[in-house]
Write a structure and sequence with these properties.
Elements lengths: L1 E5 L9 E2 L2 E9 L4 E4 L2 E8 L1 H6 L2 E2 L2 H7 L6 E6 L4 E7 L4 E3 L2 H6 L6 E7 L4 E7 L30 H16 L5 E5 L16 H6 L8 E6 L2 E10 L2 E4 L2 H9 L6 E6 L5 E7 L11 E2 L2 E2 L3 E5 L2 H6 L2 E2 L2 H7 L6 E5 L5 E7 L4 E3 L2 H5 L1
């Protein structure tokens, strides 16, 4: 199950019902295809292989259902009105040669397309970045030459950049902040020392790292790093493998590392947000006006079990302070539900009825 939080018109045109702020939420089924009276919606992630090929993957089920309407040409209309014409590759269930739209919006691997199918090959499109926040379509890459129709040179990402993009996406889309802690990288973390203190003591306790451990495994997307540990007066120190990790991942002061505990006691997942590359999903705030965007969050088994829904961190950073302790959820079929909200936990609570329905 996937939830998409639609924050359009929440502010300044926010509606307040008996002290409850209105948020908007729509539901996608597990197969990422939502059948509706006027068509379907597909939530598709652009993984590395599709990005390199310049393809936008669809689903075979979708091709089978609407195949009679498709003539080989599809039209993608972005929410700001931009329209793009492409060829459909039915055999491989994808839209081919979409490199130009990727270049135009500086789309990266692990971006997500929400395709709202209308009819006769026409799609309305919304694009989300690795922070699970909708793109700002008004920001054009400077190097794009609209007159001659040529885009930027295709961005070639290094293996380390790919790993960072993947880890960031999976944490923002599916991660649980209750199991995670942020560490802001400072100069002392990047020095060429035999041992480096990276995790503060309070973070060590929350990540279930204890003095009986002699090593931990850091997992960043598909990369794995074994870090030997040294304990000194109750402080945890990482050996030189941490320095190698920093160099490989090109960590800099101001970057943010999110460490998350897993079901394996000596394995920690890690994601990285580059301080100088985190502007793609920032929301502009001017007085009482906010450029609202959509975002989405995938619901984990723990969230279903607990009846909670953790909201994306970018949503909380921008809108969390505007929401009260109770939030009215409005669904596409007209149903409304009052949920409790905790800015501290970044979550909506008491959603058992929502999940059961």
């Amino acid at each position: 199950m996937r939830f998409s939080l639609d924050v359009n018109n929440v502010w300044p045109n926010v509606r307040k019902f008996h002290g409850y702020y209105a948020a908007y939420i729509s539901v996608f089924c597990m197969r990422s295809v939502l059948f509706r009276m006027k068509g379907m919606q597909l939530l598709r992630t652009v993984f590395v292989e599709a990005y390199n090929k310049g393809e936008l993957p669809l689903r075979e089920e979708f091709i089978k259902i609407v195949g009679n309407e498709l003539t080989g040409t599809v039209y993608l209309r972005v929410r700001n009105g931009d329209a793009w014409k492409y060829s459909l590759d039915s055999a491989n269930a994808c839209i081919g040669n979409v490199g130009k739209i990727m270049d135009f919006y500086a789309i990266k691997p692990y971006s997500v397309f929400l395709l709202d199918y209308k009819d006769h090959g026409h799609f309305h499109v919304q694009i989300f970045d690795g922070n699970t926040v909708e793109f700002d379509y008004s920001l054009r890459p400077i190097q794009y030459h609209k007159v001659c129709g040529t885009g930027r040179d295709r961005k070639i990402f290094s293996p380390a950049e790919i790993e960072k993009l993947g880890a960031r996406f999976f944490y923002n889309a599916m991660g649980d902040s209750r199991l995670s802690d942020r560490v802001y990288i400072e100069g002392e973390h990047l020095q060429q020392n035999a041992y480096t203190q990276v995790l503060p003591n309070d973070v060590i306790a929350r990540l279930n790292v204890h003095e009986q451990m002699t090593w931990v495994q850091l997992c960043l997307n598909k990369s794995t790093w074994i870090i030997n540990l040294k304990w000194e007066n109750g402080n945890l120190l990482f050996n030189k493998e941490w320095t190698k990790f920093c160099e490989y991942m090109n960590l800099k002061e101001g970057d943010v590392c999110v460490f998350s505990r897993t079901e394996h006691s000596q394995r920690l997942n890690i994601s990285i947000t580059d301080n100088d590359n985190d502007s793609e999903s920032k929301t502009e705030v001017h007085g009482s006006e906010i450029s609202a965007k959509k975002c989405f969050k995938m619901v984990s088994h723990d969230m279903l079990h607990d009846g909670n829904l953790e909201l994306p961190s970018k949503f909380i950073d921008t809108y969390g302070s505007m929401l009260g302790k109770k939030v009215r959820l409005s669904f596409g079929d007209g149903w409304q539900y009052i949920a409790k909200f905790s800015e501290l936990n970044k979550s909506l609570f008491d959603l058992d009825e929502v999940f059961n329905n």
